[in-house]
Specification:
The protein is mainly α. It folds into three domains: 89 residues; 129 residues, hpI Integrase, Chain A (Orthogonal Bundle); 65 residues. The protein is built from 15 helices and three strands. It has a three-stranded antiparallel β-sheet, with no helix packed on it. Helix 7 packs antiparallel against helix 9, helix 7 packs across helix 11 and helix 11 packs across helix 13.
Length: 348
């Protein structure tokens, strides 16, 4: 056990060293890149952000081209794009140019002469979410409850899958947010979930509906039977595997694909449906249900926007269009003012 512990520590240290090594810059921009990255780190930008990759790519280019000073001109950036991004997807090119644009603005604020690059048109999302029917949702839950291990594997996440899927569908949270929940974030007594580790770094409260409360209570009863120390500690993770370790989103995919097969829902690799579509389904089902209850979409959209953790309501309008497509009667239930603000669109 002690040997295993040291192996874990060594692996973590290797990972940290690798990340730090990747952060080293060698071009004339190095000191400015390091300070810019430190500023982004302090702001809470995810280490997985594409901005860091773009900066390393640009630094490598500047080193190879022996750029002599930190004054950036538009033609230099255009040469960088032409030389390093051939064959990249439009979304990738947009992301990397946007990152360098941010860096240029940072240099300008420092009094360094730079030209901010012209951003290409932001590519439109081409993925159409899969909206599960209510019958399919029930099939997914039944298939998740019926999962069984062929042999005992303590690292298996099967223990938490049923409650995880109900969390995603009942609250609309992202899978990364669900896996980051601590015990103290899930309050059965008050019926509230506090989502802290969010994409937009904004905490939000989500209600625990009665059916979810039953599932969570049942999950906690079974979890307490695991021979794991401090599993009920407020700072321990809420969703765990059989060893009490935190659930990671990357471990869910294979089980979810099995659940789809067992539920007779066709899955196409690279296309879907995806587990993230439970979030889309939550939004569409919520809009449809509230419209049938006679509520005005114009009034309920900001509430749904907050529940989903969107930065602004315009990000949530997308679901109005999806709801119109998935439920043709939806547009007939909206008031004239809602129809004016969110016009019916037959195709996405």
């Amino acid at each position: 056990m002690m040997c295993h512990k040291w192996m874990i520590i060594f692996t973590i240290n290797q990972t940290v060293d690798f990340m730090n090594e990747n952060r080293k810059y060698t071009s004339v921009f190095a000191p400015y890149l390091e300070r810019f990255v430190a500023m982004k780190d302090a702001g809470g930008l995810s280490p997985r952000s594409g901005l860091y990759d773009a900066l390393r790519l640009f630094d490598r280019f500047a080193t190879q081209e022996s750029i002599p000073n930190v004054e950036l001109r538009a033609e230099t950036i255009a040469h960088w794009v032409e030389k390093t991004m051939s064959g990249n997807k439009p979304a990738t090119i947009y992301e990397k140019i946007s990152a360098i644009g941010q860096f240029c603005k940072y240099l300008i604020r420092l009094g360094i002469k730079c030209e901010v690059p012209a951003y290409p048109r932001k590519p439109k999302k081409t993925y159409t979410p899969y909206i599960y029917s209510r019958e399919e949702i029930q099939k997914i839950f039944r298939a998740a409850d019926a999962l069984r291990l062929g042999s005992l594997r303590y690292h298996s996440v099967i223990f938490s899958v049923p409650v995880l899927l109900r969390l995603l569908y009942s609250t609309g949270m992202r899978i990364g947010e669900a896996c980051s929940l601590k015990n103290s974030d899930v309050d059965i007594q008050t019926g509230k979930i506090t989502v802290r580790n969010t994409k937009n770094r904004q905490e939000r409260l989500l209600p625990i509906i009665p059916t979810l409360q039953y599932a969570v209570t049942q999950y906690l009863d079974y979890r307490r039977k695991l021979p794991v120390k401090n599993i009920d500690n407020p700072d321990s993770y809420f969703l765990v595997n059989l060893r009490g370790d935190r659930l990671h989103p990357s471990c869910i995919g294979a089980w979810f694909h099995k659940i789809l097969r067992d539920a007779d829902i066709k899955y196409i690799p690279g296309i879907g449906p995806r587990i993230h579509d439970l979030r889309h389904t939550f939004a569409v089902h919520a809009l449809d249900r509230m419209a049938k209850e006679g509520r005005d979409v114009y009034c309920i959209l900001p509430v749904l926007s907050v529940a989903l953790g969107h930065k602004c309501v315009t990000d949530t309008e997308y679901y109005v269009r999806i709801t119109n497509q998935a439920y043709p009667d939806f547009s007939e239930l909206t008031t004239p003012i809602s129809e004016y603000v969110f016009p019916t669109i037959k195709t996405i």
